[in-house]
Amino acid sequence: MRYGGALKDETVFRERQGPLRRQPVAAVAAATPEAAEAALAAIDVVYRAAPRGAGPRGGPGAGAPLIHEAWESYTAMPILHREGNVCNRARIVVGDVERGFEEADRVFEHRFRSAMVHQGYTEPRAAVASWDSSGQVTVWSNTQLPFEVQNTLAEILQIPPSKIRVVVPGIGGGFGGKLRVGVEHVAAFLARKSGRPVKVVTTSEEELTAAYPRQGALVELKTGVTKDGRITAKAGRIWFDTGAFGRVGPARVGRHPRPRRPYRIPHLCLEGSPSNQIRPALAVMRPSFVTPVLSSTSAP
Questions:
Q1: How many angstroms separate the CA atoms of 267 and 235, rounded?
Q2: Which site in 54, 109, 144, 293 is 20 to 30 Å from 28, CA atoms measured?
Q3: Contact indicator for 205, 125 with CB cutoff of 8 Å
């Protein structure tokens, strides 16, 4: 069962040939942590290294292997522009940017990089799930968006949202890192299978390798200015490293190519797109940590 926001590209557990090792492979519930660890140790998993994708500048035509070979068939919002490992593309054009650069006295080019950053909350993601005899599940979670979690759980568990109650006793810090399903679905599956309440809490190591961090980005800007301080033109490309899954990448791309405000810029050409690329530095133990990179055609 694939779930997600604008793009349904994620599964609860990794498929036989999943995109990343950090994606969950199996889940165990036990009465004690020691028993759970022993059960996990009894599971044999064989991993085979897959080719790694190109970096942020390695666009669709750079020979990078597809993270999702059949992802064109995934359910997605019809407005998404998908190509290769790019899960969406957005473009803003105002005026004639070439003309704007011709009118400029000076032209500056800059490149900015922002790394993937964990939100730094102290309390890890956690959830408790319990089913009753009528088939309703109650989930206690430290999520920031209980209705988002409710709707996503309904999608994953394939039951009506009215059968799911999400309770938020406290968040313990989120800062955007606990907006969507984290461990609630795993707790719900284990609780339904065992017939008993199940609690799932991530470790600090799991938080730093398989959470929902702010996506890294590469921004390239070209700006034309006059001697009297007017900006005549700006062209730019923005790549977002969304990792193995689109997540919020498709929506973020439409919001970020906007370095026009608060200035009056008559000629503008800005482009952004996220793609499901795996960067070598992020390819280890990160089920959802490798963020798509924006790939776009050359800017003027």
A1: 9
A2: 144
A3: no
